[in-house]
Amino acid sequence: MSGYFDPQHLADFTKIGEGSKELADKFFSYYGAVFADGALTAREKSLIALAVAHAVQCPYCIDAYSNDALAKGADQEQMTEAVHVACAIRGGASLVHGLQMMGHVKKAGM
Amino acid sequence: MTIDAISEALDYGLPLSSDDAGPKPTRSLRARREPLADTSAQLRRLAEVELIDANGARIEFERTLAGAGCGALLPAALEVFQINIGKLCNMTCRHCHVDAGPDRTDAMMTRETIDACLWALDKTDAHTVDITGGAAELHPHFRDLVEACVARGKHVIDRCNLTVLLLPRFHDLPAWLAERGVEVVCSLPHYRRLSTDRQRGDGTYEKSIEALRRLNAVGYGKGDPRRRLTLMTNPVGAFLAPAQASAEPEWKAALARDHGIAFDRLIALNNMPISRYLEWLDASGNLAAYMQRLVDAFNPAAVDGVMCRNTISISWDGFVYDCDFNQMLDLSCAGEGGPMHVRDFDPAAFARRRIVTRRHCFGCTAGAGSSCGGATA
Ligand code: SF4
User: Fold this and answer.
1) Do A76 and B242 touch (CB under 8 A)?
2) Which of A91, B83, B161, B294 could form a disulfide with B362 if both were Cys (CB 3.0 to 4.6 A apart)?
3) Chain B partners of A73 at a C-beta cutoff of 8 Å?
4) Is the complex ipTM higher than 0.90?
Protein backbone atom coordinates (compact mmCIF):
# COMPACT_ATOMS: atom_id res chain seq x y z
CA MET A 1 0.00 0.00 0.00
CA SER A 2 1.48 3.30 -1.07
CA GLY A 3 -0.77 5.77 0.77
CA TYR A 4 -3.56 6.19 3.27
CA PHE A 5 -6.30 5.49 0.76
CA ASP A 6 -6.30 2.26 -1.28
CA PRO A 7 -9.21 1.79 -3.76
CA GLN A 8 -9.09 -1.96 -3.11
CA HIS A 9 -10.28 -1.26 0.46
CA LEU A 10 -13.74 -0.55 -0.91
CA ALA A 11 -14.01 -4.00 -2.49
CA ASP A 12 -12.51 -5.54 0.66
CA PHE A 13 -14.78 -3.68 3.10
CA THR A 14 -16.42 -6.83 4.42
CA LYS A 15 -12.99 -8.14 5.52
CA ILE A 16 -13.36 -5.79 8.49
CA GLY A 17 -15.30 -8.75 9.93
CA GLU A 18 -12.00 -10.60 10.45
CA GLY A 19 -11.44 -8.53 13.61
CA SER A 20 -14.93 -9.01 14.99
CA LYS A 21 -17.43 -10.95 12.95
CA GLU A 22 -20.25 -10.33 15.37
CA LEU A 23 -19.94 -6.55 15.31
CA ALA A 24 -19.38 -6.50 11.54
CA ASP A 25 -22.47 -8.66 10.96
CA LYS A 26 -24.52 -6.31 13.11
CA PHE A 27 -23.22 -3.30 11.22
CA PHE A 28 -23.80 -4.76 7.74
CA SER A 29 -27.28 -5.99 8.58
CA TYR A 30 -28.17 -2.54 9.94
CA TYR A 31 -26.54 -0.91 6.90
CA GLY A 32 -28.58 -3.06 4.50
CA ALA A 33 -31.80 -2.22 6.32
CA VAL A 34 -31.05 1.51 6.27
CA PHE A 35 -30.68 1.55 2.48
CA ALA A 36 -33.74 -0.54 1.59
CA ASP A 37 -36.84 1.13 0.11
CA GLY A 38 -38.85 2.58 3.01
CA ALA A 39 -40.54 5.91 3.64
CA LEU A 40 -37.74 7.18 1.38
CA THR A 41 -36.91 5.32 -1.82
CA ALA A 42 -33.57 3.55 -2.15
CA ARG A 43 -32.71 6.13 -4.83
CA GLU A 44 -33.38 9.07 -2.49
CA LYS A 45 -31.28 7.39 0.20
CA SER A 46 -28.47 6.88 -2.29
CA LEU A 47 -28.47 10.61 -3.14
CA ILE A 48 -28.43 11.48 0.58
CA ALA A 49 -25.51 9.07 1.04
CA LEU A 50 -23.71 10.71 -1.87
CA ALA A 51 -24.14 14.15 -0.31
CA VAL A 52 -23.04 12.95 3.12
CA ALA A 53 -20.01 11.23 1.55
CA HIS A 54 -18.93 14.64 0.28
CA ALA A 55 -19.60 16.28 3.64
CA VAL A 56 -17.48 13.69 5.46
CA GLN A 57 -15.05 13.62 2.52
CA CYS A 58 -14.89 9.84 2.29
CA PRO A 59 -13.40 8.80 -1.08
CA TYR A 60 -14.66 5.23 -0.66
CA CYS A 61 -18.24 6.40 -0.16
CA ILE A 62 -17.96 8.93 -3.01
CA ASP A 63 -16.87 6.08 -5.30
CA ALA A 64 -19.55 3.69 -4.01
CA TYR A 65 -22.44 6.15 -4.05
CA SER A 66 -21.54 7.75 -7.39
CA ASN A 67 -22.00 4.31 -8.92
CA ASP A 68 -24.93 3.39 -6.71
CA ALA A 69 -26.88 6.58 -7.47
CA LEU A 70 -26.42 6.01 -11.22
CA ALA A 71 -27.55 2.42 -10.88
CA LYS A 72 -30.60 3.57 -8.92
CA GLY A 73 -31.60 5.80 -11.84
CA ALA A 74 -30.23 9.20 -10.76
CA ASP A 75 -28.59 11.38 -13.40
CA GLN A 76 -25.55 13.64 -13.25
CA GLU A 77 -27.57 16.82 -12.70
CA GLN A 78 -29.41 15.31 -9.74
CA MET A 79 -26.16 14.01 -8.27
CA THR A 80 -24.48 17.40 -8.69
CA GLU A 81 -27.39 19.08 -6.90
CA ALA A 82 -26.98 16.58 -4.04
CA VAL A 83 -23.31 17.59 -3.75
CA HIS A 84 -24.35 21.26 -3.67
CA VAL A 85 -26.70 20.45 -0.81
CA ALA A 86 -23.71 19.03 1.10
CA CYS A 87 -21.69 22.10 0.17
CA ALA A 88 -24.43 24.51 1.28
CA ILE A 89 -24.82 22.74 4.62
CA ARG A 90 -21.07 22.62 5.20
CA GLY A 91 -20.72 26.30 4.23
CA GLY A 92 -23.79 27.35 6.17
CA ALA A 93 -22.65 25.40 9.22
CA SER A 94 -19.33 27.23 9.21
CA LEU A 95 -21.01 30.55 8.68
CA VAL A 96 -23.63 30.18 11.38
CA HIS A 97 -20.81 29.49 13.86
CA GLY A 98 -19.75 33.00 12.94
CA LEU A 99 -22.44 34.13 15.35
CA GLN A 100 -20.47 32.41 18.16
CA MET A 101 -17.45 34.33 16.98
CA MET A 102 -19.43 37.54 17.02
CA GLY A 103 -20.63 36.76 20.54
CA HIS A 104 -17.00 36.36 21.69
CA VAL A 105 -15.99 39.54 19.89
CA LYS A 106 -18.82 41.48 21.46
CA LYS A 107 -18.11 40.13 24.91
CA ALA A 108 -14.37 40.69 24.76
CA GLY A 109 -14.45 43.93 22.84
CA MET A 110 -15.40 47.37 24.03
CA MET B 1 -28.99 1.60 -54.04
CA THR B 2 -27.77 4.39 -51.73
CA ILE B 3 -29.34 4.95 -48.33
CA ASP B 4 -30.99 8.15 -49.48
CA ALA B 5 -32.31 6.50 -52.64
CA ILE B 6 -33.91 3.82 -50.47
CA SER B 7 -35.39 6.38 -48.07
CA GLU B 8 -36.78 8.22 -51.06
CA ALA B 9 -38.23 5.06 -52.57
CA LEU B 10 -39.88 4.20 -49.25
CA ASP B 11 -41.02 7.82 -48.89
CA TYR B 12 -40.49 8.57 -45.21
CA GLY B 13 -40.80 12.28 -45.96
CA LEU B 14 -37.17 12.88 -44.95
CA PRO B 15 -33.90 11.18 -45.91
CA LEU B 16 -33.10 8.82 -43.02
CA SER B 17 -29.46 9.87 -43.05
CA SER B 18 -30.39 13.47 -42.12
CA ASP B 19 -30.20 14.67 -38.53
CA ASP B 20 -33.78 15.91 -38.82
CA ALA B 21 -34.90 12.30 -39.29
CA GLY B 22 -33.29 11.30 -35.98
CA PRO B 23 -30.20 12.05 -33.88
CA LYS B 24 -27.01 10.15 -34.72
CA PRO B 25 -24.25 10.39 -32.12
CA THR B 26 -22.28 7.69 -33.93
CA ARG B 27 -22.41 5.45 -37.02
CA SER B 28 -22.95 1.75 -37.25
CA LEU B 29 -19.98 -0.58 -36.73
CA ARG B 30 -20.69 -1.89 -40.20
CA ALA B 31 -20.53 1.57 -41.79
CA ARG B 32 -17.23 2.22 -40.01
CA ARG B 33 -15.90 -1.22 -40.99
CA GLU B 34 -15.00 -1.85 -37.35
CA PRO B 35 -13.68 -5.33 -36.52
CA LEU B 36 -16.49 -5.74 -33.97
CA ALA B 37 -19.00 -5.62 -36.83
CA ASP B 38 -18.05 -9.29 -37.12
CA THR B 39 -19.91 -11.19 -34.38
CA SER B 40 -17.12 -13.73 -33.95
CA ALA B 41 -14.83 -10.81 -32.99
CA GLN B 42 -17.40 -9.81 -30.35
CA LEU B 43 -17.51 -13.32 -28.92
CA ARG B 44 -13.71 -13.45 -28.86
CA ARG B 45 -13.55 -10.11 -27.03
CA LEU B 46 -16.05 -11.29 -24.42
CA ALA B 47 -14.15 -14.55 -23.92
CA GLU B 48 -10.89 -12.64 -23.42
CA VAL B 49 -12.12 -10.66 -20.41
CA GLU B 50 -10.36 -11.87 -17.31
CA LEU B 51 -13.13 -13.11 -15.06
CA ILE B 52 -11.71 -15.25 -12.30
CA ASP B 53 -13.43 -16.48 -9.15
CA ALA B 54 -11.97 -16.55 -5.62
CA ASN B 55 -10.34 -19.94 -6.37
CA GLY B 56 -8.66 -18.64 -9.52
CA ALA B 57 -11.04 -20.53 -11.86
CA ARG B 58 -12.36 -18.91 -15.06
CA ILE B 59 -15.93 -17.72 -14.63
CA GLU B 60 -18.37 -19.05 -17.22
CA PHE B 61 -22.15 -18.69 -17.25
CA GLU B 62 -23.02 -22.39 -17.28
CA ARG B 63 -20.64 -23.11 -14.40
CA THR B 64 -22.11 -20.25 -12.39
CA LEU B 65 -25.61 -21.63 -13.00
CA ALA B 66 -24.51 -25.07 -11.87
CA GLY B 67 -22.71 -23.63 -8.82
CA ALA B 68 -25.93 -21.90 -7.77
CA GLY B 69 -27.84 -25.15 -8.14
CA CYS B 70 -29.82 -23.84 -11.15
CA GLY B 71 -28.95 -26.49 -13.73
CA ALA B 72 -28.94 -25.75 -17.45
CA LEU B 73 -31.51 -23.36 -18.94
CA LEU B 74 -34.41 -25.37 -20.31
CA PRO B 75 -37.13 -24.18 -22.68
CA ALA B 76 -40.51 -23.46 -21.06
CA ALA B 77 -43.87 -23.00 -22.83
CA LEU B 78 -43.51 -20.71 -25.84
CA GLU B 79 -45.32 -17.43 -25.16
CA VAL B 80 -43.60 -14.74 -27.17
CA PHE B 81 -42.91 -14.78 -30.89
CA GLN B 82 -40.34 -12.08 -31.52
CA ILE B 83 -39.60 -10.95 -35.06
CA ASN B 84 -36.73 -8.65 -35.91
CA ILE B 85 -37.83 -7.30 -39.27
CA GLY B 86 -34.67 -5.39 -40.01
CA LYS B 87 -31.80 -3.28 -38.78
CA LEU B 88 -32.75 -0.11 -40.65
CA CYS B 89 -33.14 2.80 -38.22
CA ASN B 90 -33.49 6.58 -38.34
CA MET B 91 -31.12 6.86 -35.34
CA THR B 92 -27.67 5.50 -34.48
CA CYS B 93 -27.56 5.33 -30.65
CA ARG B 94 -24.28 4.69 -28.90
CA HIS B 95 -25.45 1.62 -27.00
CA CYS B 96 -27.39 -0.20 -29.76
CA HIS B 97 -26.87 -3.97 -29.46
CA VAL B 98 -28.34 -4.47 -32.94
CA ASP B 99 -25.85 -2.16 -34.71
CA ALA B 100 -28.82 -0.54 -36.41
CA GLY B 101 -28.69 2.69 -38.41
CA PRO B 102 -29.77 4.39 -41.63
CA ASP B 103 -27.14 2.45 -43.59
CA ARG B 104 -28.52 -0.96 -42.59
CA THR B 105 -30.57 -1.50 -45.72
CA ASP B 106 -28.63 -4.77 -46.04
CA ALA B 107 -30.69 -6.31 -43.26
CA MET B 108 -34.39 -6.10 -44.15
CA MET B 109 -36.76 -9.05 -43.92
CA THR B 110 -38.21 -10.11 -47.29
CA ARG B 111 -41.95 -10.55 -47.84
CA GLU B 112 -41.32 -14.27 -48.27
CA THR B 113 -39.69 -14.51 -44.83
CA ILE B 114 -42.51 -12.48 -43.26
CA ASP B 115 -44.96 -15.01 -44.67
CA ALA B 116 -42.81 -17.86 -43.34
CA CYS B 117 -42.90 -16.20 -39.88
CA LEU B 118 -46.71 -16.08 -40.01
CA TRP B 119 -46.81 -19.72 -41.09
CA ALA B 120 -44.56 -20.65 -38.16
CA LEU B 121 -46.55 -18.45 -35.76
CA ASP B 122 -49.66 -20.48 -36.62
CA LYS B 123 -47.89 -23.63 -35.48
CA THR B 124 -47.35 -22.20 -31.97
CA ASP B 125 -49.51 -21.18 -29.02
CA ALA B 126 -47.57 -17.94 -28.54
CA HIS B 127 -49.97 -15.27 -27.29
CA THR B 128 -47.73 -12.30 -28.08
CA VAL B 129 -45.95 -11.13 -31.21
CA ASP B 130 -43.12 -8.74 -30.42
CA ILE B 131 -42.05 -6.79 -33.51
CA THR B 132 -38.66 -5.17 -33.32
CA GLY B 133 -35.79 -3.77 -35.40
CA GLY B 134 -33.95 -1.29 -35.97
CA ALA B 135 -36.97 0.91 -36.20
CA ALA B 136 -39.48 -1.74 -37.23
CA GLU B 137 -41.94 0.88 -38.47
CA LEU B 138 -39.57 1.76 -41.35
CA HIS B 139 -40.07 -1.64 -42.94
CA PRO B 140 -42.37 -1.44 -45.97
CA HIS B 141 -44.40 -4.46 -44.75
CA PHE B 142 -44.62 -3.42 -41.07
CA ARG B 143 -48.32 -2.55 -41.22
CA ASP B 144 -49.18 -5.76 -43.11
CA LEU B 145 -47.40 -7.82 -40.48
CA VAL B 146 -49.20 -6.04 -37.63
CA GLU B 147 -52.59 -6.54 -39.36
CA ALA B 148 -51.87 -10.23 -39.92
CA CYS B 149 -50.97 -10.78 -36.24
CA VAL B 150 -53.93 -8.76 -34.95
CA ALA B 151 -56.23 -10.79 -37.23
CA ARG B 152 -54.89 -13.93 -35.53
CA GLY B 153 -55.93 -12.54 -32.12
CA LYS B 154 -52.36 -12.02 -30.93
CA HIS B 155 -51.24 -9.35 -28.51
CA VAL B 156 -48.90 -7.28 -30.69
CA ILE B 157 -46.00 -5.22 -29.39
CA ASP B 158 -44.31 -2.51 -31.44
CA ARG B 159 -40.82 -1.77 -30.07
CA CYS B 160 -40.59 1.90 -30.89
CA ASN B 161 -37.67 4.33 -30.62
CA LEU B 162 -40.21 7.23 -30.39
CA THR B 163 -38.39 9.65 -32.70
CA VAL B 164 -39.47 7.61 -35.74
CA LEU B 165 -43.06 8.69 -35.08
CA LEU B 166 -42.05 12.24 -36.00
CA LEU B 167 -41.15 11.35 -39.59
CA PRO B 168 -43.80 12.86 -41.90
CA ARG B 169 -44.77 9.42 -43.21
CA PHE B 170 -45.74 8.24 -39.71
CA HIS B 171 -47.94 11.04 -38.43
CA ASP B 172 -50.96 8.76 -38.64
CA LEU B 173 -49.19 5.79 -37.03
CA PRO B 174 -50.13 6.40 -33.34
CA ALA B 175 -53.85 6.45 -34.24
CA TRP B 176 -53.38 3.46 -36.57
CA LEU B 177 -51.71 1.41 -33.81
CA ALA B 178 -54.30 2.51 -31.26
CA GLU B 179 -57.16 1.31 -33.48
CA ARG B 180 -55.58 -2.13 -33.58
CA GLY B 181 -54.81 -2.34 -29.84
CA VAL B 182 -51.06 -2.63 -30.41
CA GLU B 183 -48.92 -2.16 -27.28
CA VAL B 184 -46.20 0.42 -27.87
CA VAL B 185 -42.99 -0.28 -25.95
CA CYS B 186 -40.85 2.83 -26.24
CA SER B 187 -37.19 3.36 -25.49
CA LEU B 188 -36.48 6.32 -23.25
CA PRO B 189 -33.16 5.96 -21.42
CA HIS B 190 -34.06 8.52 -18.76
CA TYR B 191 -36.94 10.82 -17.87
CA ARG B 192 -34.51 13.72 -18.00
CA ARG B 193 -32.78 15.28 -20.97
CA LEU B 194 -29.08 15.00 -20.15
CA SER B 195 -28.78 11.22 -19.93
CA THR B 196 -31.22 10.60 -22.78
CA ASP B 197 -29.33 12.83 -25.20
CA ARG B 198 -25.94 11.47 -24.12
CA GLN B 199 -26.90 7.97 -25.14
CA ARG B 200 -29.03 8.64 -28.19
CA GLY B 201 -27.84 12.01 -29.47
CA ASP B 202 -28.74 15.68 -28.99
CA GLY B 203 -32.38 16.43 -29.59
CA THR B 204 -33.59 12.89 -28.81
CA TYR B 205 -35.26 13.92 -25.58
CA GLU B 206 -37.27 16.71 -27.12
CA LYS B 207 -38.39 14.51 -30.02
CA SER B 208 -39.24 11.63 -27.68
CA ILE B 209 -41.40 13.88 -25.49
CA GLU B 210 -43.25 15.12 -28.56
CA ALA B 211 -43.82 11.51 -29.71
CA LEU B 212 -45.13 10.56 -26.25
CA ARG B 213 -47.55 13.52 -26.43
CA ARG B 214 -48.86 12.19 -29.75
CA LEU B 215 -49.33 8.71 -28.25
CA ASN B 216 -51.16 10.17 -25.24
CA ALA B 217 -53.36 12.19 -27.58
CA VAL B 218 -54.75 9.02 -29.18
CA GLY B 219 -55.42 7.35 -25.83
CA TYR B 220 -52.14 5.60 -25.07
CA GLY B 221 -50.82 5.52 -21.49
CA LYS B 222 -54.09 6.12 -19.66
CA GLY B 223 -54.74 2.64 -18.26
CA ASP B 224 -56.69 1.27 -21.28
CA PRO B 225 -55.38 -2.29 -21.88
CA ARG B 226 -55.91 -1.79 -25.64
CA ARG B 227 -53.74 1.33 -25.64
CA ARG B 228 -50.88 0.19 -23.46
CA LEU B 229 -47.87 2.49 -23.41
CA THR B 230 -44.76 0.98 -21.84
CA LEU B 231 -41.53 2.90 -21.38
CA MET B 232 -38.24 1.06 -21.40
CA THR B 233 -35.21 2.43 -19.60
CA ASN B 234 -31.67 1.15 -19.83
CA PRO B 235 -28.58 2.49 -18.08
CA VAL B 236 -26.65 5.31 -19.69
CA GLY B 237 -23.24 3.88 -18.84
CA ALA B 238 -21.53 0.88 -17.29
CA PHE B 239 -23.90 0.14 -14.45
CA LEU B 240 -27.01 -1.95 -13.85
CA ALA B 241 -30.60 -0.95 -14.49
CA PRO B 242 -32.54 0.63 -11.61
CA ALA B 243 -35.10 -1.40 -9.68
CA GLN B 244 -38.21 -1.24 -11.85
CA ALA B 245 -40.84 -1.07 -9.11
CA SER B 246 -39.04 1.69 -7.28
CA ALA B 247 -38.26 3.75 -10.41
CA GLU B 248 -41.74 3.59 -11.98
CA PRO B 249 -43.57 5.95 -9.57
CA GLU B 250 -40.71 8.43 -9.80
CA TRP B 251 -40.79 8.37 -13.62
CA LYS B 252 -44.57 8.75 -13.66
CA ALA B 253 -44.46 11.71 -11.29
CA ALA B 254 -41.60 13.41 -13.16
CA LEU B 255 -43.04 13.05 -16.68
CA ALA B 256 -46.49 14.17 -15.48
CA ARG B 257 -45.02 17.16 -13.63
CA ASP B 258 -42.53 18.25 -16.31
CA HIS B 259 -44.53 17.48 -19.47
CA GLY B 260 -48.05 16.35 -18.58
CA ILE B 261 -47.24 12.91 -20.04
CA ALA B 262 -48.76 9.65 -18.80
CA PHE B 263 -47.66 6.07 -19.40
CA ASP B 264 -48.73 2.67 -18.11
CA ARG B 265 -45.62 0.87 -16.97
CA LEU B 266 -41.86 1.14 -16.86
CA ILE B 267 -39.55 -1.73 -17.67
CA ALA B 268 -35.86 -1.56 -16.81
CA LEU B 269 -33.28 -3.51 -18.81
CA ASN B 270 -29.59 -4.09 -18.30
CA ASN B 271 -27.43 -3.26 -21.28
CA MET B 272 -25.98 -6.34 -22.92
CA PRO B 273 -22.25 -6.30 -23.68
CA ILE B 274 -22.89 -6.74 -27.41
CA SER B 275 -22.20 -4.72 -30.54
CA ARG B 276 -21.98 -0.93 -30.10
CA TYR B 277 -22.42 -1.13 -26.32
CA LEU B 278 -19.54 -3.62 -26.25
CA GLU B 279 -17.53 -1.20 -28.36
CA TRP B 280 -18.27 1.65 -25.93
CA LEU B 281 -17.43 -0.49 -22.87
CA ASP B 282 -14.11 -1.45 -24.38
CA ALA B 283 -13.16 2.02 -25.65
CA SER B 284 -14.06 3.66 -22.32
CA GLY B 285 -12.03 1.11 -20.32
CA ASN B 286 -15.16 -0.20 -18.58
CA LEU B 287 -15.44 -3.67 -20.10
CA ALA B 288 -13.74 -5.80 -17.44
CA ALA B 289 -15.32 -3.89 -14.54
CA TYR B 290 -18.78 -4.10 -16.15
CA MET B 291 -18.50 -7.84 -16.75
CA GLN B 292 -17.34 -8.29 -13.16
CA ARG B 293 -20.29 -6.19 -11.97
CA LEU B 294 -22.69 -8.48 -13.87
CA VAL B 295 -21.05 -11.58 -12.41
CA ASP B 296 -21.03 -10.16 -8.87
CA ALA B 297 -24.72 -9.32 -9.19
CA PHE B 298 -25.65 -12.83 -10.41
CA ASN B 299 -29.08 -13.57 -8.96
CA PRO B 300 -30.31 -17.19 -9.12
CA ALA B 301 -33.89 -15.93 -8.63
CA ALA B 302 -33.63 -14.09 -11.98
CA VAL B 303 -32.83 -17.26 -13.96
CA ASP B 304 -36.33 -18.68 -14.38
CA GLY B 305 -37.62 -15.57 -16.14
CA VAL B 306 -34.93 -15.08 -18.80
CA MET B 307 -36.46 -14.53 -22.22
CA CYS B 308 -34.81 -17.48 -23.96
CA ARG B 309 -37.08 -19.85 -22.02
CA ASN B 310 -40.45 -18.59 -23.31
CA THR B 311 -39.49 -16.78 -26.52
CA ILE B 312 -38.58 -17.56 -30.08
CA SER B 313 -36.55 -14.88 -31.80
CA ILE B 314 -36.46 -14.66 -35.60
CA SER B 315 -33.81 -12.66 -37.41
CA TRP B 316 -34.36 -10.50 -40.51
CA ASP B 317 -33.03 -13.37 -42.66
CA GLY B 318 -35.36 -15.91 -41.09
CA PHE B 319 -33.09 -17.82 -38.72
CA VAL B 320 -34.37 -18.97 -35.35
CA TYR B 321 -32.65 -17.95 -32.12
CA ASP B 322 -33.20 -18.47 -28.40
CA CYS B 323 -33.32 -14.73 -27.80
CA ASP B 324 -32.61 -11.36 -29.32
CA PHE B 325 -29.12 -11.29 -27.81
CA ASN B 326 -28.07 -14.66 -29.21
CA GLN B 327 -29.47 -13.42 -32.53
CA MET B 328 -27.18 -10.40 -32.47
CA LEU B 329 -24.20 -12.66 -31.78
CA ASP B 330 -25.17 -15.11 -34.54
CA LEU B 331 -25.51 -17.89 -31.95
CA SER B 332 -28.28 -19.68 -33.78
CA CYS B 333 -30.60 -22.07 -32.13
CA ALA B 334 -28.98 -25.43 -31.55
CA GLY B 335 -31.56 -27.63 -33.25
CA GLU B 336 -30.89 -31.28 -33.88
CA GLY B 337 -29.78 -30.69 -37.47
CA GLY B 338 -27.86 -27.42 -36.95
CA PRO B 339 -29.27 -23.88 -37.32
CA MET B 340 -33.05 -23.74 -37.81
CA HIS B 341 -34.73 -21.60 -40.44
CA VAL B 342 -38.24 -20.35 -39.83
CA ARG B 343 -39.51 -21.87 -43.08
CA ASP B 344 -38.63 -25.32 -41.64
CA PHE B 345 -40.02 -24.52 -38.19
CA ASP B 346 -40.89 -27.59 -36.17
CA PRO B 347 -42.41 -26.72 -32.76
CA ALA B 348 -41.58 -30.11 -31.23
CA ALA B 349 -37.92 -29.89 -32.23
CA PHE B 350 -37.82 -26.29 -31.00
CA ALA B 351 -39.18 -27.34 -27.61
CA ARG B 352 -36.40 -29.94 -27.36
CA ARG B 353 -33.59 -27.52 -28.22
CA ARG B 354 -30.62 -26.80 -26.02
CA ILE B 355 -30.43 -23.08 -25.19
CA VAL B 356 -27.09 -21.63 -26.23
CA THR B 357 -25.39 -19.56 -23.52
CA ARG B 358 -22.21 -17.53 -23.32
CA ARG B 359 -20.82 -14.86 -21.03
CA HIS B 360 -23.25 -12.16 -22.23
CA CYS B 361 -25.96 -14.18 -20.44
CA PHE B 362 -24.73 -12.69 -17.16
CA GLY B 363 -26.51 -9.53 -18.38
CA CYS B 364 -29.87 -11.32 -18.04
CA THR B 365 -29.29 -12.64 -14.54
CA ALA B 366 -27.69 -9.63 -12.84
CA GLY B 367 -29.56 -7.83 -10.08
CA ALA B 368 -33.32 -7.97 -10.59
CA GLY B 369 -32.71 -9.75 -13.92
CA SER B 370 -33.36 -8.41 -17.38
CA SER B 371 -35.37 -9.57 -20.37
CA CYS B 372 -37.38 -7.91 -23.12
CA GLY B 373 -40.28 -7.91 -20.66
CA GLY B 374 -38.24 -6.14 -18.00
CA ALA B 375 -37.00 -7.40 -14.61
CA THR B 376 -37.28 -11.14 -14.10
CA ALA B 377 -36.96 -11.44 -10.31
S1 SF4 C 1 -28.70 -13.87 -23.32
FE2 SF4 C 1 -30.31 -15.08 -24.21
S3 SF4 C 1 -29.65 -17.22 -23.87
FE4 SF4 C 1 -28.48 -15.96 -22.50
S5 SF4 C 1 -29.71 -15.97 -20.55
FE6 SF4 C 1 -30.26 -14.12 -21.73
S7 SF4 C 1 -32.06 -14.71 -22.81
FE8 SF4 C 1 -31.03 -16.66 -22.17
Assistant:
1) no
2) B294
3) 190, 233, 242, 247, 250, 268
4) no
